[in-house]
Amino acid sequence: MTDIFIDGSAGTTGLRIFERLSARKDLNLITLPDELRKDTKARKEALNDADIAFLCLPDAAAVEAVSLVESDRVAIIDTSTAHRVDPSWTYGFPELKRGGNYESIKNSKRIANPGCHASGFNALVEPLVESGILPADARLTCTSLTGYSGGGKKMIAEYESAEREPLLDAPRMYGLSQTHKHLPEMKAVCGLENEPIFCPIVAPFYSGMEVTVPLFASQIKGTADDIRAIYADYYKKGLVAYCENGDEGGFLSASALSGRDDMQITVCGNGERILLVSRFDNLGKGASGAAIQNMNILLGCDEAAGLDI
């Protein structure tokens, strides 16, 4: 029986991890009463009693939690931004060659879970840079449409309030200063020389994510069909799959994979202007689902165990 502790189990990501793992017969969940959830001594004891600890905390709190772990036995899966570009941590996207890969994750005690927007971007761009069809000095743009659950409990309450402001009834762009916290990992994991221009948009639906990277044919050393072939070969294993015809009658819905833990990759456009699109659940492959997948790899079991795909 593997002992699991979720530090931050009351948050959106932590709660979903807890709900998924509660049904597992091979795991024992270490829990704290509500009055001790933020008690440092109690958290330290739980962290060191665990075989695997999930950190579902703000960055500073995640760094503090790591400092509390004294046992060499404990493996940590951190869902915060704090360690995603730290070279001493393994980046937890096993389908990517630069994303940790299966063996390094399996043998790691420190795994940084990817960011939601970054997961969609990296899944599209990293295979192209790795294969050489897209140069590392490419200057890219990325638009990412997400459901409001990615903003956590406060944003969920705002969107689901009966008195919500009318401005919330339409999609809202954010990250306007081009300093979004996912940009460093997007650049690092893909091996890019430049951070992309990134336009995240939150819309009035609960969950789902659609990430789009447009390319001109002149930016690549090949064709759209070459990109399709790269994706089809790259994603033969794991929870990411290339889909030849993924649209819904000429539309691509951002909520198509809501509630699921896998990711779908599609290539649209024409010979001159190409659209790379990834769709997934921002709380699934974009957060808790990815964390559980990394845990399954650590345990050496089916990586999709307990997930919805």
**What name goes with the CATH superfamily of the largest domain?**
Dihydrodipicolinate Reductase, domain 2
**CATH class group of the largest domain:** Alpha Beta
Order of helices and strands: EHEHEHEEHEHEHEHEEHEEEH
Average pLDDT score: 94
* Lateral strand order in the biggest sheet: 8-9-7-10-13-12-11
- The helical percent reads 25-40%
**How many beta-strand elements?**
13
Shape: globular
CATH architecture of the largest domain: 2-Layer Sandwich
CATH topology value of the largest domain = Dihydrodipicolinate Reductase, domain 2
**Unreliable stretches:** none
Number of helices: 9
The total tally of domains equals: 2
Distance between the termini: 25 Å
CA gyration radius, whole angstroms: 19 Å
What structural category do the secondary elements indicate?
A: alpha/beta
Strand residue content: 15-25%
**Sheet having the most strands:** 7 strands, mixed
